[in-house]
Amino acid sequence: MDPIWTRLLAGELDPLLLAAHGVEPGRLSQLSQLRKYGSRDEVAAVLSLWDARRRATGRIDQAERLWVTAEAVQQATRSAVARHKAARIRQACSESPVIDLCCGIGSDSIALSQGGPVVMVDHDRLRLTLARANVRLTGGKGEAVTADAAALPLTPLPLHIDPDRRLDGRRRHSYPEMLPGPDVLEVLMEKHPDLALKCGPGVDVSQLPAGEVEFIQESGDLVEATLWRGSFDGGQRRRATLLPSGESISGEEEVLDLFTDPDPAWIHEPVSVIERAGLVAQLLSRHSIGELHPGLGWLAGHQRIDSPWLKSYEVVERMPWREDKVRRWLRAHGEGISIVKTRGISENPAQLARKFRGSGGDLILALLRHGKKQVAWILRRSL
Fold this sequence. Notes:
Layout: H1 3-9, H2 14-20, H3 28-34, H4 40-56, H5 70-75, H6 79-93, E1 98-101, H7 107-113, E2 118-122, H8 125-137, E3 142-146, E4 159-161, E5 166-167, E6 170-171, H9 182-191, E7 195-199, E8 212-218, E9 221-229, E10 238-243, E11 248-251, E12 266-270, H10 272-276, H11 280-284, E13 290-291, E14 299-301, E15 310-320, H12 323-333, E16 337-343, H13 349-356, E17 363-370, E18 373-381
Parallel strand pairs: 1-2, 1-4, 2-3, 4-7, 8-10, 16-17
Antiparallel strand pairs: 5-6, 7-9, 8-9, 10-11, 12-14, 12-15, 13-14, 15-18, 17-18
Helix pairs in contact: 6-7
């Protein structure tokens, strides 16, 4: 392992770490002051650590204290998501040891360790060392094992695995492109029946082995899909979960088979996770609404719906989509557009929002394709 990291973890560079807090890498005068506390390479390493901690802030709890690298932060599970998954795992296996395979810097390990022992496994010695330090720092218990997923030297304990889904810095969403690949993953599934496989939210569910696939949205962002197997499987093929509220809905993916309502008083936009999970039809079976247009994905009705799964907008006006036509309407009514949404229409929402902002206003412009027609809906968001 890099000797600078060894010194950092041992506390030997604490004076430099403290002095570097808040220092901007480009400020030469400040950098020269830091040289009093360490070598050029040590200063660079400490500044890199603080930069990685800043990147992790808001995504990972206690980021300002954890041992992280910038690259590992990009791949780490958000703390809210890690806690949600850990709670589900611990509900099934209580305080039994759980393996966190491909643990990285330990975001999932930290959450798992709060309910029982965790066995952290990674082939990258630095990340494994950081994960172990982070678990200890946050009060958890666990052991670290350097190993490759293809030769995991452990008994068939419950297992969480976060495969590498990046190649040359680009995200990969398909199951066959994960590392370790399906051949290794499916051997692990046989050996460890109780298993959670972290996937990207764009994963093709049809490629995955049997089990429940849970799509997770956190603070408005669709961030993850998890394949749950064995005792972790809730018995449904699909699940959509909202965090931090914990709202969840499960069922089988269904094709929308609802009536269409071309002249609604309200339009409803499903949140990303319920649409991605294919559960819109199941959710809406409890509401007297239909599709705005077949295959569009937006819904329509004659009253506001109070649901965490839908954003409701009151219809103010509709017209064929032409920029000059919308501009004239806004000018005539003294209104402005704050947000532009599009579906099935190739337009730049941010650019249009700037054009239509006017002297202010909080209306929403939704440009939606209705078959061959392009329709502009002027909407008011529900309070």
